[in-house]
Amino acid sequence: MHILRVKKQIEFTQTFELNPSQVFDFRSLSDIQKNDTVIKPYYQVFADKLGFTPNVSCLDALFNVGLETKDL
Known about the structure:
Layout: H1 47-50, H2 58-65
């Protein structure tokens, strides 16, 4: 998060709840299939065999291109 310049306080839960109450869960609002954001290809380890794979994770970019991730 420091490299990506994300300022967010992380809070860990004390117990696991499958369907937590008192919490806003926005995960269902994400529909990656409808996302029409154009992602600029960057170096990926197996791109020579599989081609560029978009929408993997920001961690994929971070592990593959390091500090340049913030410029993507």
